[in-house]
What we know:
By secondary structure, the chain is mainly alpha-helical. The protein has helices at about 25-30, 35-40, 55-75, 85-95. It has one domain (about 25-105). It is elongated and about 50 Å long.
Amino acid sequence: xxxxxxxxxxxxxxxxxxxxxxxxxxxxxxxxxxxxxxxxxxxxxxxxxxxxxxxxxxxxxxxxxxxxxxxxxxxxxxxxxxxxxxxxxxxxxxxxxxxxxxxxxxxxxx
Length: 110
């Protein structure tokens, strides 16, 4: 999986590679991701391979969302914007992560 830092944000956390000895069955499986999910993931710089487990992908996107929501809260606490805008900004951020409303098995084709 490849993650790309967006302008103004530090690089997201790095996901370690799954070792064949650690998880032999997961490495041997091939996942076919839905095209619409790949488009949504690419918006966050995430490009899973056929060997990337959907749970790992979802966990990574969730961690990225948590990072961004914490960063937004820090900006609010520094008073970069007024309190009345905070809820709207949280909602806007949540709407940029529609894949988090799906279960990992919904990322792949049946």
